Amino acid sequence: MKNITFILMVGLLIFSSSIKAQNTTSLDNLLDRLSENHLGSVTDVFTNEEIEVLKIYFYNKNTIDEKSSLLPDIRIATTQAVQVVIAANINPVDLESIEELLPSPLENFEGAGFTIQTSSHLAFIIDNANLVWMRNLLTGEYTPLGNLLNVPKNHSITGLERLTGPQGTLYGISTNGKGSSALLQIDTITWEATIIGYPNLILPINLGRDADDNLYTVDIDNDKFYRLNLSTGDVTEIGDIGFDANFGQGMTYDPDTDKLLLTAFNNDLFDSELREVNINTGYSTSLGTIVPGTLMQFGWGSMYDRDILGSEDNFLNDFNFYPNPAKDFITLNSSTIIDIVEIYSLLGQKLITNKIESTNSVLNISHLPTGNYILKVISIKETGTYKLVKH
Length: 391
Prior knowledge:
The protein is mainly beta. The protein has 2 helices and 25 strands.
């Protein structure tokens, strides 16, 4: 009986050693895979079981020193991409949790996005298949807008940034993940891209600006911070960002504090941080881990002040217009005199201004490209805003 027990114990020890060796090998393989460059989501590279192994490894390895952020009470619109993919907000002064909205209906990784500060309270997102989406900042609801056209072959948009002012130009940066990248100017009515130039970058992962509308990006291949020339797409290296960046991540400018921020995936922590970049040196400092102890990833981030957002729509009493969607003309009817009618792009660009001074009128929109617009109707006492679709 003792001999049988001894044999069983030896067998168990051998089996246990074998499992331990397999786990060690498995962890080594996971770390080797993590050391490679990856554009999209963590879940594209690791299974849920593998993620748990890495979370335990990095939790034990790193002692995270959480720092309080002294930023104003604003929000960073983003998408949480690791667990349930969900539209979310990051509160820069409270990184302990994120504000979750609706689950994302997108099949592809949300690699780039930006917000606009208008009554339309919208975010625009371009996923890794170069599909364009509009998202309501208040509800998280998505609306498809079609394909982004003229993107270089095999490239995905990894960063978006809009310059200041109501006529602010939208720029994007793209890469094929293999050494080819492009700086693009994007028409937000037709969603067509124009190639400005080809930066000499391997994996530019985001796009941001400063108060003077200089554009910046981070290359996750060499962890360097660069300034981009708006006319040629050429880059100037500024410096090392100070951490091992990997996977999709975002960049956003906060005009209230004059800070350029990263929703950064730090490979050394295997987790996401909010980091502040020094635009003169390129070096970034951590403002804290986003939801410590819970692996999250944010492929883009864009500042907005939700306190200035209005209600979903602001309607006038006894006013209507038709048809909607429309092709060439819309008819306006009101019980009170309409003074002025204006049509804006979703980014706040004023495209049409007509003085009406009547209770009814017909407005010619035949020259507008197909797309979504904001109709603004101004009377003596009230102003109303409406969503207009042009076929």
